[in-house]
Amino acid sequence: MRNLVIILVFLVFAQTSFGQRFSFLLRGIEDGLTMPVVNDLEVDATGMIWLATDGGGMVKFDGIDFYDEPALANLPSLFVTVIEKDFSNNFWIGTERGLACYNGKKLHVFKNGPEAKINGIAFLENTVYVASRQGLLQYKDSSFTAIALAGETEVLSVAVYNKEVYFTTETGCFVLVDNHIKACGFSSANKVIGLKNGLAFCSPTKVEGFVGTRNFTVDATGVRDVVWADNGTLWLASQKEGLLRVSNGHVKTIDARTGLAYDRVRTLLFLDGKLWLGAQQGLAFFQNTTSFALDESQGLPDESVHAALELNGDYWLGTATGISVFKKDGSILNYSASDGLPGGIVLDIEFYQQKVWVATEQGVAYFSQNRFHSINKKLDFVFCLKPINDVLLMGTANGVWAYQHGTTTQIAFADSLPDGIVAIENAPSGQYFVGLTGAIYKREMAGLQKIKQWQNLPIDTLQIFAAKFSAKYTCFFVVGDGVYLWQDNELTKITEKDGLASTSFKSAAIIGDRLWVTTDFGMQCIELLKTKKSNFRIQSISDLSSINNKEFNFRSLTVAGNGELLNGSNNGLFVLGNASISAVPNYQVGIQRVNLFFQPTENWSDFGAKATRWSNLPQQLELPYHQNYLSIKFNVQPNNAHDAKLYFRYKLVGQDKTWTNANGRKEAFFTSINPGKYSFEVESSANSNFSETSKAVFHFKITSPFWLTWWFWVLFCLGVLAIVIFVARYRINQLNQKLLLENALANSERKALRLQMNPHFVFNALDAISGFIFKNEAKEAVRYLGSFAKLMRITLESSRETLVPLQNEMQLLKNYIDLEQLRFNNKFSYEIEIDEELDPYDILLPPMLLQPFVENAIIHGLKHKEGNDGFLKIAFKDVDNHLLCTITDNGVGRKKSGELNAHRNKTSLATSITEERIDLLAKSLGERVIFTITDLFSKTGEATGTEVVISFPYLSEDEQS
């Protein structure tokens, strides 16, 4: 039991302050929340906010919409009282009728657990403690054990700190240590709440407790929840007083009068530096706890604020009708002409020589002894005041004036005197500059002189609205052009293309590495930094609700001494606290839901995908080709809630080549997506040019129908190829069989023709032998018969072959010619000539192919020639890889022979048979065989013989059959 008596007392008594108006984002029934009463809030592992409602069960909020989780439909009761997250990010859900646990996918209802209202849940190592109407229960090793309480039944709350279990009942607060129950020092508490490194004990009229070594006590009624913020601020949710902020010894009550729409706050959730509120009427989000507005709701008589000054916690506001002071004690003081204030609009307020000075349309005055006192010099239209050292400079319609020690003097101009000095700025170098819209003047020895050029930039050609200086930067705001920024003599220009909302400037300020500017389109921050992409980043302001819809006044932006930004408008004064200007908000976009055919899909396992816990986003999603209608919902995470204008764009990589601007929508629709692999990418940015973005990606695949898959086409091609090969082989087999039959038939025909020719030759030979016998030339007949026998032997040997060597054919021809010479009494001579390049033993040709032509030359040509000078020549040559056979005689020619044999009325069988053999040879070779018979004539036209030419390709033994 820790000692609660600590020397350092954090807070003791509540103090009040004036009623600033704070900004909240509100979400309720009109936004889709079915049941308005929110009993508890929790955040899951993905950053989504969960609401425990009275009668509506568990409701999830994704930053845009509220929706029910189907997996939680079977809770013990729709009246959910408490949600607590354990060390494994599981939700333990207490209801009016029992307890359940949800791991982000499945709900487990404890049938063996409490069946009454659950008031609280706490965790200690591997044990869960449950406060219920049935008492204090301990859940460990899958079973519940009741902790005996003397005379007590209902336990109202439970919390764990330093391995000790604290709980409250109707009779007080107790602590469980080593299974022993002891009284707690906060005996009057009826509720105990666990804090980060501490506890809070709530009784009907006060809250007390400790965080670390600091104790606190706050007078407050009806407190249901307490949270400790990272910046040392304590927040209390009260059903009677609203929201209470405890900081630096002060208690600030935020209720309906100061911007909180829901006074009856029931629960709080502090998340990433932001505060969420669950109330009697819905959900609220505190946008910025250090920023607020001062307007007529807090008693401001005139909301048209043109100047402001923060002084020791008081806010001095210059309006169109006077001065209003919001005191830190909560009071408001108003001053007008009756209090010595010069008439007209208050255009500027400054602190000089321990006094507040104001500039109006009718002069300058200072505040002293609860009144305003005008200076001794009458000045009209004093636009600005600027204390520099011990001099107060005043910019007026008639130049620049200096006030010092009660004396007002005019500062001379080296150039012509301009009208309307509306700004005075001092630079770190000690110089000061004055300006009016369109020009800048610099203090020189001779007086104020117009600056025509600034580091090679002709600024006298620009319409300059304002100049701002810091130790590192020099900045010119140019109307209609942009912002010119110098750092280390390097110029950077920022325009509307870079995300600047407008160049119609109204106010500007520079704080450290940030430029603040207001235009017709609201307020923006230009953060000066150097990255790979740019030297700056532009962000819109989202700290105050609808701040960018307000009409800000000219030159009303002021940097307060405490670091706050004071921005005057026609709707009051907006104060942006230190948190607003210490960091630029980061709006992290996330993909929140994927719908199939635009309807939520809960069971992604049907498509082979594994859904992630809490988000239910499918991982490694592969959809069939007919499930190709998707909608993908996205938004910044709820912990980045805001009301600033954000820009979203998306594209479907694999289908889209360019980005699609969302134009305010937070959902992308895709229909009839073609099969393929895709990545859905979405970016968010506070700038329309997306110079700084947050990105989220979702991958999925649409599978092809089987008739478009590669394996189908491979099988299809293989099948077609198999059919083609089968048909081709079948056809080739048919052709081969046909060719074999044709070749066999051709061979048979050649053999038959050869057999026809052989009897013809034998007949002629026998006819010659009979002639010798008839003439009683027995010797000649015997010699002829011997030669004939030799020739017949050669012929018989050749008749067995389809092809014979040229040497055999030449021997056959020589024997045949010798017989014919003998028969015709050497009436002619002959010559067989063969080209030296030819090898007669390698060259093949059909047997007895040439004999019929030789026979015709002798019988029809040389036989009828007068005298014995007949000549027959047979020549073999190689011409173009062909065997060229030429048979030439000097006989009477075919015409004379025809006339001499006309009475015989007989055609040459040998010639016709040989011609048919040549045709068959050409068909079997598949190549043309040249065969010509040419009559030879002398120059006088007299027949001198006949020439037969046969040319065919060289044959090999493969052609034999």
Describe the structure.
With about 950 residues, the protein is of the alpha+beta class. The chain is elongated. It starts with 8 loop residues before the first strand and ends in an 8-residue tail after the last strand. The relative contact order is 0.06.
Give a brief rundown of this model.
The protein is α+β, with helices and mostly antiparallel strands.
Low-confidence stretches: 1-17
Number of helices: 7
Termini Cα gap: 120 Å
Helix proportion range: 10-25%
Query: How many whole angstroms does the radius of gyration measure?
Result: 58 Å
Number of strand segments: 75
Helix-strand layout with pairing:
Layout: E1 9-11, E2 24-27, E3 38-43, E4 49-53, E5 58-61, E6 66-68, E7 80-85, E8 91-95, E9 98-102, E10 107-109, E11 118-124, E12 127-132, E13 135-140, E14 143-147, E15 157-161, E16 164-169, E17 172-177, E18 180-183, E19 191-195, E20 198-202, E21 206-211, E22 214-219, E23 223-228, E24 234-238, E25 242-247, E26 250-254, E27 265-271, E28 274-279, E29 282-286, E30 292-294, E31 305-311, E32 314-319, E33 323-326, E34 332-335, E35 346-352, E36 355-360, E37 363-368, E38 371-374, E39 382-388, E40 391-396, E41 399-404, E42 407-410, E43 423-426, E44 432-436, E45 439-444, E46 447-450, E47 464-469, E48 474-478, E49 482-487, E50 490-494, E51 505-511, E52 514-519, E53 522-528, E54 536-540, E55 552-559, E56 565-569, E57 572-576, H1 578-582, E58 589-596, E59 599-600, E60 610-611, E61 618-619, E62 621-623, E63 630-636, E64 647-653, E65 660-661, E66 667-670, E67 676-685, E68 694-702, H2 710-774, H3 778-799, E69 804-805, H4 806-823, E70 828-834, E71 844-845, H5 851-862, E72 870-879, E73 882-889, H6 893-900, H7 909-925, ...
